[in-house]
């Protein structure tokens, strides 16, 4: 990979990661998508519920890989945790968050593309920088938008759209931003 391109890819992925960590309201995964065209960001999308709706992290809490729910319905009474002064009950069904998310949350890629559509801005020939690999539905939306590249840092367990994008001519780049990567770059002064 061209060193200049890798530097830009790393920069935009770091920006996406920062946006996800600071602004996502999902209890499970903080995801962001930054769409860049002609070296300028043209849209940013964060995963979460639509504006004015209840956020995931107001209902669910994830600690040590286990989901808890603030609402005491269909949960185990014996296993609770306190977070910010609120009691959360361990969920009987650990897939409950995933099911809730599918019904209520919008993925980061869809949010970013939706903002572009609202402004009549084209994503054609742009690059999408995503913290997690796109799911099937988001991959279809990225293909339809005529985006040229998708760069992601972390694999998503439901991210089955990578081959679909490749088959459609989109360049897909996996650029893991691990702690070791940062140490090597800082010591190498590559950043």
TrEMBL record:
UniProt: Zn(2+) binding residues: 107, 135, 138
A Pfam family that the UniProt record links to this protein: dCMP_cyt_deam_1
Gene3D superfamilies: Cytidine Deaminase, domain 2
Residues at the catalytic site: 109 (proton donor)
GO biological process: pyrimidine nucleotide metabolic process
Known cofactor(s): Zn(2+)
A GO-annotated cellular component: cytoplasm
GO molecular-function term, one example from the UniProt record: dCMP deaminase activity
Residue ranges of domain CMP/dCMP-type deaminase in the record: 7-191
Keyword Hydrolase listed: yes
Keywords on record: Hydrolase, Metal-binding, Zinc
Annotated family: Belongs to the cytidine and deoxycytidylate deaminase family.
PANTHER family cross-referenced by the UniProt entry: DEOXYCYTIDYLATE DEAMINASE, DEOXYCYTIDYLATE DEAMINASE-RELATED
Protein name: dCMP deaminase
Biological source species: Exiguobacterium oxidotolerans
